[in-house]
Design brief:
Bound molecules: zinc ion
CATH class of the largest domain: Alpha Beta
Strand content: 15-25%
Radius of gyration: 21 Å
CATH superfamily of the largest domain: Medium-chain alcohol dehydrogenases, catalytic domain
Helix content: 25-40%
Structural class: alpha/beta
CATH topology of the largest domain: Quinone Oxidoreductase, Chain A, domain 1
Largest sheet: 7 strands, mixed
Length: 369
């Protein structure tokens, strides 16, 4: 084991202040690698964990763990036998890479049929950061990547501030969109212009669709237009579902969008509204409403319009490569680096999470270098 030490921000459960700790940087076992993290972004699920919306009870001190699962960095040390990334490109110490914290099990019925989600998806090894190899989350200077975890070289033109949220924000929405078709001349509508919604706009454009984005925050809608939205609908200007549905009819010449994508957090009332906006035969794609959100659907119109409702979670290894390819091709066209709206130092990670919880940022990131 090397004498090098690395910093990590560890948490003990909701309601307990986070602490900065130092751990020895491990040497990788055969097939593994150690990565030096440059930037880590804060995902909605980190906020849920911080607030105790799932996980342990609030105020009860748990074993220390490192949160965070969206990161980018460089190869620090390669274990014996590792010389390429997941798609076979040569890897050397110092190469810029992004990677996935999770692994599919490979043996459940879903994995065997090559569909996701995998119900047995593993999030690294164990939960405590006091146990070797310590570096198991994103809010730290290093990360220990097990054999089999996906890792990709990042194209030079894609900055850290774009690569950092490929897994999970961008890949989650990219994978959801593989489940729908965009026939010639079709429209896609995105409910919610947060990180996922902004990413979805160029992805729909790349598939040939015209795009409408609905949100209530003017600055997010401006960003959505920079991300390729043909039209935006401001919920403060069109305050009722009826007025928004009417506006969508106008924009789509009475036809409606073939796809409505829901990427909102905690607003289940958007579902019936989105279903009503859809074109005949259209698909409602739901990604953001993870949580106990009951929704009432009027079945008559749903059946008579021949609609489809599809949920989507997780993604495949290939999705990450596809997102990186899209970013590389369109880095001059869309402001991929602007999804990260605020950056913080590693020691201010808890403050970054608080601001994300308060909705003050599009997406916050912690910068280590
Ligand atoms: Zn996430
Ligand atoms: Zn599986």
């Amino acid at each position: 084991m090397s004498a090098l030490m690395g910093k990590a921000v560890v948490n003990f459960g909701p309601g307990i202040p986070w602490e900065m700790r130092e751990y020895p940087v491990p040497s990788p076992k055969p097939g593994a690698m150690v990565l030096k993290i440059s930037m880590a972004s804060i995902c909605g699920s980190d906020v849920h964990a911080y607030l105790g919306e799932f996980g342990g009870p609030k105020g009860v001190r748990q074993k220390p763990s490192i949160l965070g699962h969206e990161f980018v960095g460089r190869v620090h040390e390669l274990g014996e036998g590792v010389c390429t990334d997941t798609v076979g490109r040569r890897l050397e110490v110092g190469d810029r890479v992004l990677w996935s914290p999770s692994m599919l099990c490979g043996r459940c019925p879903s994995c065997l049929r090559e569909v996701v989600p995998c119900p047995n998806r593993k999030e690294h090894q164990g939960t405590t950061s006091d146990d070797w190899p310590h570096f198991k989350g994103a809010f730290a200077e290093y990360y220990y990547l097990n054999p089999g975890q996906w890792v990709y070289k990042v194209p030079d033109v894609v900055p850290d501030s774009a690569a950092v949220y490929v897994d999970c924000a961008a890949a989650t929405v990219a994978y959801a969109l593989t489940k729908v078709d965009f026939p010639m001349g079709s429209w896609g509508l995105i409910q919610g212009a947060g990180g996922l919604g902004l990413c979805a706009a160029p992805m729909m454009k790349d598939r040939g669709a015209r795009v409408i984005v609905v949100d209530k925050r003017a600055e997010r809608l401006e960003l959505a237009r920079a991300f390729g939205a043909d039209h935006t609908i401001d919920g403060t200007e069109y305050p009722t579902p009826e007025s928004r549905i009417e506006r969508v009819r106008e924009l789509t010449k009475g036809v409606g969008p073939e796809v409505v994508l829901e990427v909102v957090a905690g607003a289940p009332e958007v579902v019936p509204e989105g279903l009503e906006m859809l074109a005949i035969g259209g698909t409602y794609l739901t990604v953001g409403l993870v949580g106990p959100y009951p929704v009432t659907i009027e079945m008559g119109p749903f059946i008579n319009k021949g609609l489809r409702l599809i949920g989507s979670a997780q993604f495949k290894a290939a999705t990450m490569a596809d997102v990186l390819d899209l970013m590389e091709r369109t880095i001059d066209k869309y402001p991929w680096d602007k999804v990260i709206s605020h950056t913080f130092r590693l020691e201010d990670t808890e403050e970054a999470i608080k601001q994300a919880a308060a909705g003050k940022v599009v997406r916050a990131a912690v910068v280590m270098d």
